[in-house]
User: Fold Porin from Sphingobium cupriresistens LL01.
Amino acid sequence: MTLRLRLAGGTALALLMIHMPVAAQAQSSADLQRQIDALRAQVEALTAALAAGQSAQPVAVAPASAPASSATPVALAASIAPPPAIPASSAAPKAKAWYEKLSLRGYTQMRYNGFLSGDDTAAAGVSRLRSVHDSSISDRGGFSLRRARLVLQGDVSDRVSLYLQSDFATAVNNQAGTERREGFAQLRDAYADVFLDKEKSLRLRFGQSKVPYGWENMQSSSNRLTLDRSDAINSAVPSERDLGVVGYYTPPSVQKIWDRLGHDGQKLFGNYGAFGVGVFNGQGTNRTEQNRGLMKVAFATWPFALDGLGDAFEGQVFEIGGSAMLNKVQPELRSGAVSTIAYEDNRVGLHAMLYPQPFGIQAEWNWGKGPEYDRDSLSIETKKLRGGYVQMMYRLPTDSVGALMPYGRWQHYRGGWKASTNAPRLETDEFELGLEWQPWKALEFTVAYARMKRAEADERRTGRAEGDLIRTQVQWNY
Assistant:
């Protein structure tokens, strides 16, 4: 704009000099001054009009006594208008580079577990109260970082998206002893989604990702209500992930229901399909495959909107589905080697839930067989397994203190835990009563009371330990 104003003024002065007749040069100084003043007024009027974004319409300010010859340059200057500006909306938008389409987010969970009573210690060979999900449940309890996740994700094209997640709260054992070292980084997810249709309802996922078995297993820990997953469902895929290829399909009608639930603030199970079929290595997260066989999995879930049943069911959604898995796995042995025997690891599970609006209920159960340490033969054998959980919750969003969600869960499991050395047998019965408070979306607090009765995941210890704990967690999202 400033440049155009200067050009317009300069052009007017130049025209004045060019078109001024010789006779006018002989005029008196007073006549020349009047012409200059008139031209200056015209330029000022043009400047004001341009500044206001209007067409320049000169105002006649030349005195009546001015010679006719002086009006010619003024009229020429007044007739000059800047070229019209091109609207910003008509300019072609610059396409974003792929790295500009990526986003960075994550969450961190800090915990403190306190024993009220129970077997936090025990004699050699006897089970202590421990959990396969939280190593800070011990006689050396204190603050711990359960998870510190960082996620990089985004669409690199219209048909391809990527997802990369690391956990910076992984622990490893000291190589010279038994003391743990905390705060190591571990790869959790590294996959690409390839969408086969424009609506993105059908996709193939390549890489390390969650295995579609069990509703709770697929739900993100940042979104799960209870502090830990259940032993029975998680025993199928401890750490929930493996390396492979899986296809997901979500009908538009199902996606519409899930979108409505997500907009309402419900805790969904994640970015997965209503149907999923995949093949994976089958050895577990970040573990080298030990045989040529692949783990085959299938998953299906379907939500039903209950609005048509009457006013009492307005907004309610009931979801039901199931999972199946066929696999052969080779557990790690106490000697440090990996078993040369590939054990059958097959199971089937069912899940159902009524989303809390405001009251809800969620349940899963599975049956099958897998590797388990046998005390009589002192070896690993393929044995039956069974177990699941039932959970009730109440959702109470408020404008003053944020969202509150009290819950209660009972879980039961009898079977092997293939992720631990020698695949020890777990015998779990646990009741948990808790409350999640989310004052803001970026912050969540959970306080829970747990009554536990568990066999320790160590084949060298016998019996079951019991105890009462207060468990706390703060989670911040970013």
